[in-house]
Design brief:
Two copies of one chain form a homodimer. Chain A has 15 helices and eleven strands. Helix content of chain A is about 40%, strand content about 10%. By secondary structure, the first copy, chain A, is α/β, with parallel strands linked by helices. The longest helix of chain A is centred in the C-terminal third of the chain and has 35 residues, at about 370-405. Chain A folds into three domains: about 20-85, dopa decarboxylase, N-terminal domain (Up-down Bundle), CATH 1.20.1340; about 115-365, Type I PLP-dependent aspartate aminotransferase-like (Major domain) (Aspartate Aminotransferase, domain 2, 3-Layer(aba) Sandwich), CATH 3.40.640; about 380-495, Aspartate Aminotransferase, domain 1, CATH 3.90.1150.10. In chain A, α6 (about 160-180) packs across α7. Chains A, B: Its cofactor is pyridoxal 5'-phosphate.
Chain lengths: ~500, ~500
């Protein structure tokens, strides 16, 4: 910053980005973080604090004068860390893991370093161009058809979350439809997904102004492992058409949140293609596995789909936020999302020789998001990234084996990837409420120890324990220890 | 990760987050970044590459085997940096600056380090609670009424961008209205803003399903410095009511993108309050200045507003993305955005004793975003943050003085903050087209030197050069050098 007028207090010479000060303090922070990773196993994985714990410790106002980094780091240790649920702990088996890596951390540091705002090409050519290249790289790793690539006729973008990926494609589909039907028919647009679809789908539909009464949640059942039936979809679509409504958008899952159920793309695409429905595949978690040939079949039929999203922050070591979205017809997205204010106009954008990613997303500003993926792919190579997926699946299989070999437990739905859905088996002599209560108690006890964090779900009326393997630091020994803890809980409960 | 089955190749022992490897490589990256900041002035501020430059340099596929960090860093230097428009260069005077600081960098490192996914309280109590506290701190710094604070009856959240802040509040307003009017009246909802409002407003309205024909862009003129007239607003609203439409949402600007025009909140709130219109204040850039008492009057009337957003990534040293949104009635936002899937349910959320930020935003996942602001406020103290604003404004005043003292130039709109809007003065004897052409040529030449980057706008038909002071590394000497360069260009043009 520059000098100050003499009438303002200037207690110290303030330089917010002195390179030598930056160097010194950033080195300090690196050591703090490396130490945290080294000690991470010693912290309770699920935070044990009570609501409001932090407000009692912190002042009501920001300080008027500066405080030294040492004081702040002490507070991180004593005030923040106790309130963390440690997602990177090797004992974290809740939700889906959020995977990370040194390479991605370095990529994020670089992204922060440049702090470029890549709303259009000119504002940071490298940011736009590297993202285009990296999205093509990942598309190639997934063996997507060229129609999803910039090398072909499509393209991809890094969104923050699946919610945005769905919102953006839904709006493209909506406005394409309304161009023909007229705006007043908005209330007649209908969207479809299975009842296993992430809640974010219905939320995106609400955001986009789809009538809440036109959001179809098609039931699934245990006997088909909770996958969406093309027959049921067809019935729903035909009923809507008969009622004078307009089928608009179908969200298909490759790996649902509750149980990693996989919808079969081909038969669902038959229905969607026939009725001109925009078909989106949400492969947030399991899509990453499809970089391994042995899992790629889950994407069979992808060439008949309009858009696909998957989140490397879940399983490709990238840290948050990173959701990759590919579309076959970027022009439909751009048509509805583009803006052209005078203050952003420039020769390159006008010539239409470049991609302006602001027209592919909700916001205007955007960070240099591709650096993380670029560093991951280059630092580890495809071989190690595939192996990391395989190792997680192998550990999940190992856990599945433990469960199967204990007669008190059962696997509820077949394991496909790194998630094991299991429970204490129901006893014929007692009701299902009691079984659910026992499983709830078991989960509560396991989590209360701070030694393992798992979560639950309910599907088809069954209360299920979810054991999601794949936190980056998890090794075989953590899975073994977790199983021993679960058994210990069961021993006490079923005594 | 765990072990691998023996049938897969494992060319090296792969550990994506070995703490000692992390420590070593992150230290290397810190030095790379500190060196970049030290050398930043030597790079052309506006990248001089041509579209497609990177694809010719990079392979078509990700590598199968790992590459060493040294190779990658060499490529960052030789392939990425030439394609960067250096937003942190002290010679960056384009758009608005995107300000940064060592403290925020450290906060971002910590946020990345934890990689917690704070969709609800339990998933990371510290993440939610620190955000609540920090948002109250900033609200206090801005002297917002308690009704915007968690300490009072409101609250705030960090969104990624202004677009999301507008979208979220617009949806809350929309669904509140439709609850009464019924969904079929969506097409009758009308939104209002001045023609100076950022293009993201119209985009958010389109996303939310507001009929494009119901987005009112109310004209402004130079004689009122492009601020929105309450009289014109009232006329537009009354016309719509008379036509059987429903006025829904008004977006008011404190500091427009083109010229930092300020709409006067009080008189506009009269109209909005009278007609039950949701009133949002977009203070993306200039809002930050209101932490200084001498600028606070721009928020006068804020107690009559429903929501306010401002972006610390613009002027509070925070790096991207960071847009703070406060609302007086969080329950309206939560009502429309909340989801409650089984797999996220937990005792604390059910008891409604906690805030679950997923219900305040578009996405589900979210990072530990408040760490950056917390580190900024604590490391620098309010005094230094105020001084940093003042120093930028003083430098802009200095530049304004240079312009005013040169008879070939003129200030087009009064300077309020750190942006100077100026141009080569029109000559009575020649047409306005020629003036515009001269100014375009001047801008083009200045930017082509790589020594300064400025941008332009057109308001009220006038082509204006924008000189935005405030890049974190900018000092008086850079402003002086930029002015000398501009004069040099003018000398050549007007010879």
């Amino acid at each position: 910053m520059g000098r100050l007028d003499s009438n303002f207090p200037d207690p110290c010479h303030f330089n917010p980005l002195d390179p030598e000060e930056f160097r010194k303090q950033a080195h300090e922070m690196v050591d703090f973080i490396a130490d945290y990773y080294q000690k991470i196993e010693t912290y309770p994985v699920l935070s044990q604090v009570k609501p409001g714990y932090l407000r009692t410790d912190l002042p009501e106002n920001a300080p008027y004068l500066p405080e030294p980094l040492e004081t702040i780091l002490k507070d991180v240790q004593n005030q923040i860390i106790p309130g963390m649920t440690h997602w990177l702990s090797p004992n974290f088996f809740a939700f889906f893991p959020s995977t990370v890596s040194t390479a991605a951390f370095l990529g994020e540091m670089l992204c922060t370093c440049f702090n470029s705002v890549g709303f259009n090409w000119l504002a940071s050519p490298a940011s736009t161009e590297l993202e285009m290249i990296v999205m093509d790289w990942l598309a190639n790793m997934l063996k997507l058809p060229k129609s999803f690539m910039f090398q072909g006729t499509g393209g991809g973008i890094i969104q923050n979350t699946t919610s945005e990926a769905i919102l953006v494609t839904l709006i493209a589909a909506r406005d394409q439809a309304l161009d023909v039907l007229g705006f007043d028919n908005m209330r007649k647009l209908v969207v479809y997904a299975s009842d296993q679809t992430h809640s974010t789908f219905a939320k995106a539909c609400k955001l986009a102004g789809i009538s809440p009464r036109n959001i179809r949640s098609i039931p699934t059942t245990l006997d088909t492992a909770f996958s969406l039936s093309a027959l049921h979809l067809r019935k729903a679509v035909e009923d809507d058409v008969a009622a004078g409504l307009f089928p608009l958008y179908l969200c298909v899952n490759v790996g649902t949140t509750s149980t990693t159920a996989v919808d079969s793309i081909g038969p669902l695409a038959d229905v969607a293609n026939e009725h001109g429905i925009w078909l989106h595949v949400d492969a947030a978690y399991a899509g990453s596995a499809c970089i391994c040939p042995e899992f790629r079949h889950h994407l069979d039929g992808i060439e008949r789909v309009d858009s696909l999203s998957l989140s490397p922050h879940k399983w490709l070591l990238s840290f948050l936020d990173c959701c990759c979205l590919w579309v076959q017809k970027p022009s439909l997205v751009v048509k509805t999302l583009s803006t052209n204010p005078e203050y952003l106009r420039n020769e390159q954008s006008e010539s239409e020789s470049v991609v302006d990613f602001k027209d592919w997303q909700v916001g205007t500003g955007r960070r240099f998001k591709s650096l993380r993926l670029w560093l991951i792919f280059r630092s580890y190579g495809i071989v190690n990234i595939q192996n990391h997926i395989r190792s997680d699946v192998r550990m999940a299989k190992m856990f599945e084996g433990f469960v199967s070999s204990d007669p008190r437990f059962e696997i509820v739905v077949p394991r496909e990837f790194g998630l094991v859905c299991f429970r204490l088996k129901p006893d014929e002599n007692i009701g299902s409420d009691y079984t659910e209560m026992l499983n709830r108690k078991l989960l509560e006890w396991v989590n209360s120890t701070g030694r393992v964090y798992m979560t639950h779900t309910i599907v088809g009326g069954i209360y299920i324990l979810r054991f999601a393997v794949g936190a980056t630091l998890t090794e075989d020994r953590h899975v073994v220890a977790a199983w021993n803890l679960i058994k210990e809980g069961a021993d006490a409960l079923l005594f």
